[in-house]
Amino acid sequence: MPILRYSAASPYARKCRIAAELLGFGASLALVGADTTDPADSLRAQNPLGKVPTLILDSGETIYDSRVICEYFDLLAGGGKLIPAEPAVRVAALTLQSLGDGINDAALLIRYEATRPEPLRSSDWIALQAGKLDRALAALDAAPPAGPVTIGHVAVAAALGYLDLRFEGAWRAKHPALVAWLDAFADEVPAFEATRL
Ligand SMILES: N[C@@H](CCC(=O)N[C@@H](CS)C(=O)NCC(=O)O)C(=O)O
Fold first, then answer.
1. Which of 13, 64, 108, 139 has the most CB atoms around its CB within 10 Å?
2. What burial class does residue 1 get, using C-beta atoms within 10 Å of its C-beta: 0-12 exposed, 13-18 middle, 19+ buried?
3. pTM value?
């Protein structure tokens, strides 16, 4: 059985877990937690980058990062499922995935910066990342993901879930259309709630 090295809080891992459920692989995936900060964790031997998610196949081959893992799941399911085959729809879905993943990237950088000792912390750097979050959320609120669920929808939902987890859902007050979209997504995709920390 393939093993997903993950952490429960990781939005990238959550994207993969939701994708696996949507594609029918949820039950055939062993979830094994990883501590990315522990040099002794076998994760670093499995993925030189020491990041989650990392997928280990029965053959021992490893697959990372979350985008490649999701593509692997989609191909395994026959292709063209969460990553549509039609070129224009595919590019739109992948771009939406990049927006969701980019929210995670900026949010994580803010969190990492906040853990540095006060004198080393850069408010300019935090503001730069916060600007990405503000613009991404405004763009999504103006045009929430539409149409059948794609990997883009899953990535955005996972990113908003991460903002709920780590930033106390502060995004919600200014983005009512996106809140409504996430509620509808959660109704349509039970794996979203099932993967909540
Ligand atoms: N682009 C990667 C990002 C993965 C990532 O940054 N994961 C975080 C956890 S949310 C991590 O492993 N951080 C530990 C580290 O960077 O050393 C993906 O999509 O999988």
1. 13
2. exposed
3. 0.97
